[in-house]
Design goal:
Elements (H helix, E strand, L loop, with lengths): L1 H24 L4 E11 L2 E15 L5 E12 L10 E5 L8 H6 L4 E3 L13 E3 L9 E6 L7 E2 L12 H18 L7 E6 L1 H16 L6 E5 L11 H5 L2 H10 L5 H4 L3 H22 L5 H15 L3 H6 L6 H7 L7 E2 L7 E2 L13 H20 L25 H11 L4 E7 L7 H11 L9 E6 L9 H17 L11
Parallel strand pairs: 4-7, 4-9, 9-10, 10-13, 13-14
Antiparallel strand pairs: 1-2, 2-3, 3-7, 3-8, 5-6, 11-12
Length: 493
C-alpha cells in the first residue's frame, strides 16, 4: 500500500513539473521567420514562412489563450490584393493542423511510402504538389492543440471547447490576423478536414455576418455531418456504397462485380441504396419476408458480407462490425479512417476491432516529423509538447447547425463556392454521406452550380496516397482559379 501511495505521489509531482515547464514556455506572441523555396509543378516558388503565436482576447482585451500558426507567403508576388489567402484547419476536435500542413497542401510533405505507410528515417521532403504556387496559406492550431495553449486558467473551458464557442473565438482570431497582415483585399478561402469541416462551415458564416469578411470558397475534406440530419433509415443505409468500395479494394466481391472498375460499381450501388435500401429499412418489421431476403442477397453481393450476416442485422450492418467481419476468415481487421489498412487483433472473435490500423500507422509517422520540422526548418524552438490530439474535453456538441450556416453564407454571397473531397475507403466520414450533405444544404437545387464533389481511391486523408496527393492538390488549385471572379464581375444574382 505504501509503495502504491509513493508511486502515485511521484506521478503527481512529475505531472506538476511538466505542467510548470509548459506554463513557463508558453509565449503569448512570438514569431520565427525563415525563407525557403519549393519546386511546384517544375517551377521555382520562393516563400517566407512565419511560425509563431498570436493571442485570443476576451471582451476586456486581456489575452486568455494563444494560438500557434504557420503562415506561408510567396515572395515573388507583389500584388497581395489579388493573391488568394487560404486558412487551413484540421479536426478532432482536439487535433493540431499538422496533418494537412505536413502531408497535403504545404511546401513540405511527410516521409512515407507511395500508399501512405511510415518509413524511417522520419522526416519531410519538398512537396511538388503544394498549392503555394497559387495561394498563401495559414495553418492554425486551435486552443490546446499543437503548440496552442490556454493562458488564463480561470477562464471556463466552455469558452473554447464546443461547436459554437470554437467558431466564435476562431473567427475573431482570423479577423485580427487578416487585419495585422493587411490581407483584407485578398480573395479568401477556408479548408477544413474531418471535424475541421464543421469548424469552417460555421466560420465562413460567422466571419461573413459578425465581421463582414466575405470568402470565395470553402473546401470540405472528408466532411462530418455538420449538424445535418442523417438519422433513421438514412443513417443505416448510406454506408452500403462505402462497403462496396472497400470490399472491391480487398478483392472480396463476387467475380463478375470484382472485374468491374470502381467507377462502374459505385453509381449502381448508390442508386440501389437510394431507391431500395432506404425505403426497405423504413418499412422495418412490415417489410415482406421474401422481399427482405432478396434485398439482403443483393446487399451481400455489393458488400462482400454474407447474406446471413445482413439478415442478422435487419439490413443495417454497423460499420464497427464490418471492420471486424470483412476479413475475419483471414485473421485480419480493416481500418476505420482508411480501410485499405489492415490490422490484427488478439483474437478473431468479437463485434469490433481492438484498434484502428489506419490511425496508429499515421501517428507513427506524423509526430516525429512535426517535431523535426518545427525545430530544424521553421526554427521554432520550444519545450512545449506538440499535441497531435490535445485535451479539449468535454466538448459541447449541442446546437451544431454548421452545415446550414454554410448554406446560408452561400445564399448571401454569390461569390462563395464549396468543394467536397472524399476518399472512397473512408469509413469514418464516408463519401456517400458527404454527397448527401450537399443535397441537404441545397434542397431546392438553386446552388448546385456552386457545389462540386471529388472522390479519391484512398481514405480519410486521401493525400497520403501519392497518386491522390497530386490529383487532390490539383483539384484545389483549379477550384481556387475557377472561383476567382473576373475583373469587374460583381457579386450579384
Amino acid at each position: 500500500m505504501k509503495k502504491q501511495v509513493l508511486t502515485l505521489c511521484l506521478m503527481i509531482l512529475t505531472l506538476s513539473w511538466v505542467m510548470a515547464q509548459e506554463t513557463r514556455d508558453v509565449r503569448v506572441e512570438s514569431a520565427s521567420v525563415t525563407n525557403g523555396e519549393v519546386s511546384i509543378k517544375g517551377k521555382r516558388v520562393p516563400y517566407k514562412a512565419t511560425a509563431g503565436t498570436m493571442p485570443v482576447w476576451n471582451e476586456d482585451g486581456k489575452p486568455i489563450a494563444t494560438l500557434f500558426f504557420t503562415y506561408y507567403e510567396r515572395t515573388d508576388v507583389s500584388d497581395k490584393a489579388s493573391r488568394p489567402l487560404v486558412f487551413s484547419f484540421n479536426g478532432g476536435p482536439g487535433s493540431g493542423s499538422l496533418w494537412m500542413h505536413l502531408a497535403y497542401t504545404g511546401p513540405f510533405k511527410l516521409n512515407i511510402d507511395e500508399e501512405g505507410y511510415p518509413l524511417q528515417p522520419y522526416g519531410v521532403s519538398q512537396n511538388p504538389h503544394s498549392i503555394l504556387d497559387v495561394a498563401d496559406i495559414v495553418y492554425i492550431d486551435p486552443v490546446n492543440t499543437g503548440y496552442s495553449r490556454i493562458l488564463d486558467k480561470e477562464v471556463p473551458r466552455s469558452t473554447f471547447f464546443g461547436v459554437n464557442a470554437d467558431i466564435k473565438y476562431l473567427a475573431d482570431w482570423v479577423k485580427t490576423f487578416v487585419t495585422r497582415q493587411n490581407r483584407w483585399p485578398s480573395p479568401k478561402y477556408l479548408i477544413g478536414e474531418s471535424y475541421g469541416t464543421t469548424r469552417v462551415a460555421g466560420l465562413v458564416n460567422e466571419l461573413q455576418n459578425a465581421h463582414w469578411m466575405y470568402f470565395n470558397g470553402v473546401v470540405l475534406v472528408s466532411p462530418t455531418s455538420m449538424g445535418l440530419d442523417r438519422s433513421g433509415p438514412v443513417a443505416k443505409a448510406n454506408y452500403l456504397p462505402y462497403f462496396a468500395a472497400t470490399s472491391w479494394y480487398h478483392k472480396v466481391l463476387p467475380a463478375d462485380l470484382q472485374r468491374k472498375d470502381l467507377d462502374e460499381i459505385l453509381p449502381e450501388v448508390e442508386k440501389y441504396t437510394l431507391e431500395v435500401v432506404i425505403p426497405a429499412i423504413s418499412k422495418g418489421g412490415s417489410l415482406d419476408p421474401n422481399e427482405r431476403k432478396e434485398i439482403a442477397k443483393k446487399m451481400a453481393y455489393y458488400s462482400g458480407l454474407s447474406e446471413q450476416v445482413i439478415l442478422n442485422h435487419a439490413l443495417a450492418v454497423p460499420t464497427s462490425f464490418y471492420w471486424k467481419e470483412l476479413m475475419r476468415d483471414k485473421g485480419l481487421t480493416i481500418g476505420r479512417l482508411d480501410s485499405r489498412y489492415r490490422g490484427i487483433d488478439r483474437t478473431d472473435a468479437g463485434e469490433r476491432y481492438d484498434y484502428d490500423p489506419a490511425l496508429t500507422s499515421w501517428n507513427h509517422a506524423f509526430s516525429p516529423a512535426m517535431n523535426i520540422y518545427a525545430k530544424n526548418i521553421l526554427k521554432y524552438d520550444t519545450d512545449l509538447t506538440y499535441y497531435l490530439f490535445g485535451p479539449v474535453q468535454p466538448w459541447d456538441r449541442s446546437n451544431d447547425n454548421s452545415g446550414m450556416q454554410l448554406a446560408q453564407a452561400m445564399l448571401q454571397n454569390p461569390y462563395l463556392h464549396v468543394m467536397t473531397q472524399s476518399g472512397y475507403f473512408d469509413g469514418g466520414t464516408d463519401y456517400f454521406n458527404a454527397k448527401y450533405n450537399m443535397w441537404q444544404m441545397d434542397p431546392a437545387g438553386k446552388m448546385q452550380d456552386r457545389f462540386s464533389f471529388k472522390g479519391y481511391r484512398s481514405g480519410h486523408m486521401m493525400y497520403l496516397r501519392a497518386e491522390d496527393l497530386a490529383t487532390s492538390n490539383e483539384d484545389i488549385r483549379q477550384f481556387i482559379q475557377r472561383t476567382l471572379p473576373g475583373k469587374g464581375v460583381p457579386a450579384k444574382y
